[in-house]
Amino acid sequence: MLELQGIAVSPGVAIGRALVFDREGYRITRCLVAVGEDEREWGRLVDAVKQAYDKLENSRQSTTAQLGERLGNIFSAQQQILHDPHLQSELESLIRTKTYSAEYAVSEVFTKYASAFRKATSTFLSERAADIRDVERLLLEGLTGQPTATLKQLPHEAIVVSHDLTPGETAAFDREKVLGICTEAGGPGGHTAIVARGMEIPAVVGVGNFLHNIRSGDEVIVDGHLGRIIVSPDEATRDHYMQRRRFRQSIATQLEEIRDLPACTSDGVRIELMANVEFPNEALSCIARGADGVGLYRTEFLYLGHDQEPTEEEHYQAYAQVVRDMQNRPVVIRTLDLGADKMGMTMPAEPENNPFLGLRSIRLSLRNPALFRIQVRAILRAACLGDVRIMFPMITTLDELRSARFLLRSVSEDLASEGKHIQCAVQVGMMVEVPAAVLMLDRFIDEIDFVSIGTNDLTQYTLAVDRSNDSVADLYQACDPAVLRLIQRTQQIASEKKKSTSVCGEMSNNPAYALLLAGMGIRTLSLAPAAIPILKKAIRSVTIGQCEAMAWRALRLSTAREVDAFVMNQLAGLVPEIVLQA
Amino acid sequence: MRPADKLVRAAAGFQCQIELERAGQIADCRSILSLLTLGATQGSELVLRAQGPDADEAIRVIRLMFDQQFDELNVEQST
After folding, report:
1. Cβ(A378)–Cβ(A356) under 8 Å?
2. Does B79 contact A at CB distance below 8 Å?
3. Is the ipTM of this complex over 0.85?
């Protein structure tokens, strides 16, 4: 059993067989051939060996000619590996007596040698593992005829394991087949994270190098709550996760019964449960989960994985679909919240030392008004179809808010002068994600209709911690008392002016934190659609007084750990049926 | 890697079975993987054994290769 820690980017737990895509994208599945086919398999392998040998001979000669004999001889050693009698007899035995496919036999034998070499104490030897992998790759390319099998056509249900996934690969995912995702690279804001969340596929990214320890066919558990990957779990671990799965299934029926009931505390206080969505087609799953609306429509998917800027029409269609599907429920559309590095098309991004403190989000939009206007035009046009609200991300200064509003007004005048029918009374909100915005909120509040607290970024900016950095990730705690105080202050200032405050970070996904937020006076929570039913159950099981008592105590604690232990304990006492007892 | 490569090529020229032993582990000199798996580095103590019709000649040639440090062992190890 091998346990690895990464960054949890999409909640849920998946248990299944790994399908490993390496950097070049080929995959090897465990595969046996019919008895009697072994002669044909062996023949395929012999051909592949000959082909690989010739390729190496070409490389050896051309490298020797250009760079000298010493470097050319690297290939000569690889040829030796290819013709190694021990290797050959092991391959032959797997194919002939165990009916392995040629590919599977190659993958099995080479992995064994590569791993033995990697473990060697001598660096000279451990580096030879790369030579072995090179030879393996050549053989497999010869056997499969082409180096890639795409994610578009997975042969069976699997957990996709890869160094990283390109936007094109993630966009082509088959939701029916991809049970879970784990990647060596990637961070919380990357496209893999975004797509996985949108498709509700449990995902862990940023695991670091581990592909050499896993092969297609290995059993894997992806724990998208804790950011954990378990390869070849032992029985106790598998049982633990299976028990959790059964537990979730057992409460699913109870949750189904309350789907169409409002999220009210038992003493009648209504909490609005809105959904965070990434893609237009998620609106229907929001309705199915009993969401009161869309509290955060992220629009980044429009910009990811495309060579060109999205057109106004593409924006409009994406928004219109959600607004129509939500049938007059409110839809809060957040304008572009990407870093310049993610937008490869028209803006040549200067490399930044601190992207999180750099040109991103509203700053990037304001710097590129032509682009920003296209998005705002589409939002205003979609607003004719239902209850659409616009929200600006990462507002730090009043000037930014005013510039954004100015552009909004100017776009709406343009549309009016073109004779386009537009909705004039679109509500405008700002995201509170930067401590400066909380400190100055009393000056912002008269110029906006609502605020939404993005706890992910607020936590990062308050505690000065990059949660994708392993060395400091444990500091990243949304329940840190400093973050709670900022949330409390935001809620107080907004409610004095009768403006609504919602919380749309991942914090809302956790029922214990959600009840805490309700106790602090928050009446709108926006969360992953999949997390809505269980939170509704929690809210319907408590009184607002119980939440307030919980908040009163929690706000008097001094460390994140104390707060976390306290609220989890409270949840177990108040709503025991949704907490799995260890 | 290069010495192992040369050793395999040399061993292939003989009919006899040639083995290298290091700390109880035995490698077949015809198999580069088996040689590499020995994990022998410069200074490792090795026992050379050969069995077959041309065994004496094989021992002589391979000993010589080791004595001459495979021509450029030092260069090789630094690459």
Report:
1. no
2. yes
3. no
